Amino acid sequence: MKEFNVYLFDFDGTLVDSYESLVIVFEGAYSKVGVNVPDGYTRRLMRCPLFVGYEELNGPPGEMNKRIFGDEIIRLLDDPDVLKATKAYDEVKETLEELHRRGKKLGIVTSNNKKHVGEVLNFLGFEKDLFQIIVGNQETKKHKPNPDPIHKGMELLGVKKEDVCYVGDAIDDMRSAINAGVIPVLVDRHNEYKDECEFIIKDLKGLLDY
Q1: CA-to-CA distance for 143 and 110, rounded, in angstroms?
Q2: DSSP code of residue 86
Q3: Sign of the C-alpha dihedral computed for residues 46, 50, 52 and 57 taken in this order
Q4: What's 17's DSSP letter?
Q5: Whole-angstrom Cα distance, residue 79 to residue 70?
Q6: What is the mean pLDDT of residues 93-121?
Q7: Is 129 part of any domain?
Q8: Shared domain check, 103 and 47
Q9: Who's near 110: CB < 8 A, 6+ residues apart?
Q10: Domain co-membership, 110 together with 199
Q11: Across residues 30-56, what is the average pLDDT?
Q12: What is the model's pTM?
């Protein structure tokens, strides 16, 4: 693994284990519009744009239904039980603090809600100055695998693409990085992938192995 000056991170599944919390969110929001989420399908919903998953599960059409669904997602993200169900992976804080100590710029680029991400970071005890920027799903009109969210993060940091890697746990993360012209780093915590990109690590500690 090579060393970079700027590390941009996906959030869910990369920095935090939010699977159980998002089971609560997705099952609750989909039930509001009369859709059942199949067992185990939450991981797929975590890794695709919100309304791509909605279409895959045949969510009822119409702007009113989509608004009801979207509003329920936002409401449930603020539920205290959802916050309590989110955990940081064991190695994450130590790795990020080491990168920060080395003078690296760190940021989050996620399809999650920026406000919720901030609340989770605070709840889990991350240092407030660890991440210089957070780009969520309301900061750009287009979302991953479109490059706009990563481009927005680079714009806010004032950095060049050759200095940046994007670290995520899903193929759409890798596609977004490639589309943005930055190096993709795939975190494969569950041994799901093989040869999907040049840099594959088992956990975040792999970023320090060079």
Answers
A1: 9
A2: -
A3: positive
A4: E
A5: 15
A6: 95
A7: yes
A8: no
A9: 10, 11, 12, 117, 134, 135, 136, 137, 149
A10: yes
A11: 93
A12: 0.89
